[in-house]
Amino acid sequence: MFVLVNLKAYPCDPIAVAEAARAVAEASGVRIAIAPQAADLAAVADTGVETWAQHVSPNGYGSHTGSTLAERAAAAGAEGTLLNHSENRMKLADIDASIEAARRADLETCVCGNNPAQIGAVAALGPDSVAVEPPELIGGDVSVASADPDIVRDAVAAAEAVDDGVDVYCGAGISTGDDLDAAADLGASGVLLASGVAKADDPKAALEALVEPLA
Ligand SMILES: O=C(CO)COP(=O)(O)O
């Protein structure tokens, strides 16, 4: 299972979380990546943890003020990028162009969707992975895998029907090892989570507890 920790714009210390994630990944053998704010990509990558951007823009080099260029995210040390997070939704054509931009920059892509229908649609664009995250469960205490297991099962089926080479992750409310186990049982090969680590008093302990069933 892949564990992707999205730090959003939470007021945590991205370097401390990154160092904790690197240590837990090394000790457990579980693949863990951190997606910090764009401004923190280089500092987070310098810790040695696998680093992802939260978003890259659909454009390439040029007159695009305020954009997050895939090439510069990669140069800062990012290895992958989220796209179309429900807190940063994109037009279909822009998702397509951002996947292309990420591919030019050698960034792995994970495109989010709110439900199985959206997952099928974005899987058709050929990303490396997709992630189903029901917005109403994001930031809550109940994991998507227990609150709405069918949405995960159906998202896995929707992606597989379009392209069985696309990995399917799930997210929202995931914070424990049991949540990770339940997600895997439903066919997900990874999880996205945020508040369970970024808002934890002890992010390292939170990550250790999360990956414990896999270690
Ligand atoms: O949006 C998410 C990850 O991208 C999930 O957030 P929570 O883990 O806080 O529910």
TrEMBL record:
Keywords: Cytoplasm, Gluconeogenesis, Glycolysis, Isomerase. Substrate binds at N6, L7, K8, I138, G173, A194, S195. The keyword Ligase does not apply. GO terms for molecular function: triose-phosphate isomerase activity. The keyword Zinc-finger does not apply. It is found in: Cytoplasm. Belongs to the triosephosphate isomerase family. This is Triosephosphate isomerase. The gene is tpiA.
